[in-house]
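[step 3/7] fold_predict: job queued, chain A
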Amino acid sequence: MSFAHEVKNEVLETPIENECCKMAFLSAVIHSCGELSKNGETQTVELRTDIENVYPKVNDCLKTLYGEYAEMRIDTDLNVNKAVRYIISLPANLTSRILFDCGLTKFNMDNSSSLVLGMDEHIIENECCARSYVKGVFATSSTSNIILGDNKEKKLRTFCGYHWEFIFSNEIFALEFSNLLFSLNITNSKSKRKNLFILYIKEADKVSDLFATVGAFRGLLKLQNEMTVREVRNNINRQNNCLNANITKTVQAGLKQIVAIKKIKNTIGLDALPENLKELSQLRLSNPYESLENLTKILSTHITKSGVNHQLKKLIKIAEKIDNKNKKIGEKDKKMGSV
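[step 4/7] structure written:
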């Protein structure tokens, strides 16, 4: 089970106490995943979802509000990813009443009815009802790419961000739901993907706010734990990268010093150096990868790390002078040969 399914199931397990909140939840679910069809004067509504626990939640609302139950069957038309989908049929004898009560239809002057594309503000008048409405949309129209570190699917990906999105086919509903999220202090952004309208939440802290709003506290704890693990892992990686960079820098500097000392040894000889430089040269040749700090501990005289570094730079300069001198001699011999 994906993390998104897990969190949505947790939300559906959370009880809804008040009748007004159950009406708000039912309205949100019908608006998010409902399909309306008409056969003459008869209207039917089918809810299509891949979350099985939507069914008992919808039945709980119907029982409280109307004393009736919905029916569920498995959709035999498999979609692209072959996930199991469920079709929940609302009671046909109550469909018109449910749609009107949920603010999804309205009566016209000629006694006909028409669909309401947006959200009925009376359904979400109270904050508790607004939160229940968000729960309904969350459970039926949201998706996420968040994969926890202990999920086996994690092995298929090197990294996934914190992204939660709501997908709508109705632009008016998408815009009004976006405003509802903002009213609950849940920052979201909008985009369009083909014929779909997307609301998305990208930052971990904002996704955490969403989880708290819909009552997904187990999911919230898991998300915060994942955030902590990733932060620690990133800090360790940064430290390792820094350490590796320092090691590389130390090795490269040591090799440059070794080359310089060997050049001195093979030309003028180490005995030509002052005693302090001679001792340091011999120690460096014997300890090519030792750090400057450790070299200070090996030397017979007390000297700081900065002092050792300064002396090694002197040795490199001496080697460079030998190189320059040899080059001049070579150029002079070349000129004399050409004469």
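[step 5/7] annotate
The radius of gyration is 37 Å.
Residues 152-159 have pLDDT under 50 and may be disordered.
exit 0
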